[in-house]
Amino acid sequence: MAEIAAELVAVERSLWSGQAKLVTAQTTEGEIGVYPGHQPMLGQLVEDCVVTITPAEGEKLVAAVNGGFLSVSKKKITILADDAVWSTEVNAAEAEAGSKDADEEVARRNQGLLKAQQRASNPI
Question: What ranges does the record give for the region Disordered, renumbered to this chain (predicted)?
Answer without folding.
Answer: 94-124
